[in-house]
């Protein structure tokens, strides 16, 4: 593998590192949809979670376009549409890690794909940058220090395990519930956990393999949201929200379950804490992530989560068994969901 190079190219306008992690809101004038207004009078607002401050951030326009991918590790995959050059950038600093150019035009826009990294830092020799198509069984990937992007098409029909699943649901799970852990990628659906592994010596990734996992039982009269995977200190956790659907878009959380995957027994095991000095962050339809609590001024064993159609930031305290809601600001429409941006390691 070639040496990972930290470039000196102009980076995205940096955010203040002391603000991280943050929620980003794209607001139209008076709470209107900015796309309907033609972007006139719209504003980019950033809410610092540790400082509980809402700030105007007009310099982050590029974070909202379709050639930047936000990852759970905080690094952003950036594509220059003119030159097809790619890099990993830290939006809170000026750091940038060069990636191979997408000379073959393999990468679709971030509105059609998601991006995950297999390790917390790009300098790790096992690091792989993976771009997953949302509606097609297509994976594009590269390595920092590598020479090119590669394309792999998997066969979702081979992963269908019961009558409740079909090809499209497998593609949805791979695209929306994949996380990196210890140099590999994991995703889950129903009672299965699938693993995708890349070998530097092999031209193609190891085919997705599904392992049967014993699930926890859902409480009666509860609706269960899909499990969110969180990598923390090399271990794989699952966070499940149980509650009741209030209407088509809103969901009231009644209970939060945290599980850790025990590979030896092939089961999700309920845990009472997140591990020493850990705090989790979960954004619906984005990802789950973990941080050291004391480094960012958080109380350990808390889960911060937000939803697509709700501006609120919710905090579940595992020790107390309680959930509190933080209002990022009265300037933000109640139904406007945020974008979560984590600090990069």
Automatic annotation (TrEMBL):
Organism: Urochloa decumbens
UniProt xrefs under InterPro entries: KIB1-4_b-propeller
Protein name per Swiss-Prot or TrEMBL: KIB1-4 beta-propeller domain-containing protein
Domain KIB1-4 beta-propeller: 72-317
Pfam families named in the record: Beta-prop_KIB1-4
């Amino acid at each position: 593998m070639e040496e990972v190079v930290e470039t000196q190219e102009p980076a995205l306008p940096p955010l203040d590192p002391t603000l991280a992690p943050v929620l980003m809101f794209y607001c139209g004038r008076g709470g209107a949809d900015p796309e309907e207004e033609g972007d006139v009078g719209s504003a980019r607002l950033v809410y610092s979670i540790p400082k509980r401050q809402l700030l105007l951030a007009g310099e982050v326009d590029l974070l909202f376009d379709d050639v930047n991918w936000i990852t759970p590790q905080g690094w952003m995959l950036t594509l220059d549409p003119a030159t097809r050059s790619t890099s990993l950038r830290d939006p809170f600093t000026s750091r940038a890690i060069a990636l191979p150019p997408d000379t073959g035009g393999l990468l679709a826009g971030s509105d059609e794909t998601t991006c995950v990294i297999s390790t917390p830092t790009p300098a790790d020799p096992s690091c792989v940058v993976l771009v997953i198509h949302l509606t097609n069984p297509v994976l594009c990937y590269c390595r920092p220090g590598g020479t090119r992007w590669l394309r792999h098409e998997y066969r979702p029909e081979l992963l269908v395990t019961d009558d409740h699943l079909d090809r499209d649901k497998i593609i949805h799970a791979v695209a929306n519930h994949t996380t990196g852990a210890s140099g590999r990628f994991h995703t889950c659906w129903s009672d299965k956990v699938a693993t995708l592994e890349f070998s530097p010596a092999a031209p193609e990734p190891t085919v997705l393999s599904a392992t049967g996992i014993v699930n926890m039982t859902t409480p009666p009269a509860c609706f269960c949201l899909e499990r969110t995977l969180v990598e923390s200190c090399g271990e794989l956790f699952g966070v499940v929200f149980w509650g009741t659907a209030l209407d088509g878009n809103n969901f009231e959380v009644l209970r939060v379950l945290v599980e850790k995957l025990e590979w030896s027994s092939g089961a999700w095991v309920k845990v009472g804490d997140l591990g020493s000095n850990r705090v989790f962050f979960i954004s619906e339809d984005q990802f789950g992530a973990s941080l050291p609590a004391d480094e960012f001024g958080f109380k350990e064993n808390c889960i911060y989560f937000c939803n697509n159609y709700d501006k609120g930031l919710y905090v579940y305290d595992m020790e107390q068994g309680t959930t509190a809601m933080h209002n990022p600001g009265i300037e933000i429409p109640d139904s406007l969901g945020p974008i979560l941006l984590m600090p990069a390691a």
